[in-house]
Amino acid sequence: MHTIVAIKQVPDITNVRIDPETGALIREGVPAVINPYDRHALEMAVRLKERFGGTVTVLTMGPPKAAEALVECVEQGADRAILLCDRKFGGADTLATSYVIARAIEAVSPHDRLPRQHTARHWHLRRFHERRCAALFHGPRDAEA
């Protein structure tokens, strides 16, 4: 089984500052961390690998510094890490980023699983995913709790 996990680095929320004039996030001096939901997806992928065998590939799009997050993912059990890094990607919006990541996933294929990570738009699916994960690892009885 081959599982692909896309991760994103986000500002560490314990150090977030907002520019009072523009309302924009001030990123200078704020360390980047792996999105917590992406970290959960990686953990699930590694658990699937341990239970059923296979490999886990992690990928992210970002500057060269994003390689640090990929190293962390490999330390947590990923077998392969891919950094999508090009000056052409600078300033990419959500649509462009999604397109680049989708093409990378196609290039890495075949894969069996692509865990769904939570985003602000998908928070309402959280309970559903928790139940599915509980059913996978503990059986249906725990999934309904």
TrEMBL record:
InterPro entries: ETF_a/b_N, ETF_b, Rossmann-like_a/b/a_fold. Residues 23-110 form the Electron transfer flavoprotein alpha/beta-subunit N-terminal domain. It holds the Pfam family ETF. Keywords: Electron transport, Transport. GO terms for molecular function: electron transfer activity. The keyword Membrane does not apply. The keyword Transport applies. This is Electron transfer flavoprotein beta subunit.
